[in-house]
Amino acid sequence: xxxxxxxxxxxxxxxxxxxxxxxxxxxxxxxxxxxxxxxxxxxxxxxxxxxxxxxxxxxxxxxxxxxxxxxxxxxxxxxxxxxxxxxxxxxxxxxxxxxxxxxxxxxxxxxxxxxxxxxxxxxxxxxxxxxxxxxxxxxxxxxxxx
Length: 146
Known about the structure:
By secondary structure, the protein is mostly helical. It has a domain of 58 residues. It is 72% helix and 0% strand. The protein contains seven helices and no strands. α6 packs antiparallel against α7.
């Protein structure tokens, strides 16, 4: 599954020929900028009431559609790069959380290591039979674990 996250696959129905080059992108951006600059006056938001009220040949209406298309296309231009960055950032956060969790667990183990065992407590209380039973149980548990 990790390999699936590292590789963004193109859908089968899209050919490599349709992938724009850096030059294609630069030309598209130049054309879009020229179309937007050609608008005389404020450019309405694409699809809102002011946009619908304009005649279809109004340069501001065209500029609005070009601006909307360019915003959409810019999202697509760097999609793979952004996805890779987001995945890498998510991985870094996950790894940091893993380190923090392990550090916290290790602190807990160290705290438990300083707590006397039941056998040691039984010895302190002067209960050698209970201490020996506790040691025998601890030996059996170690043997079962290995």
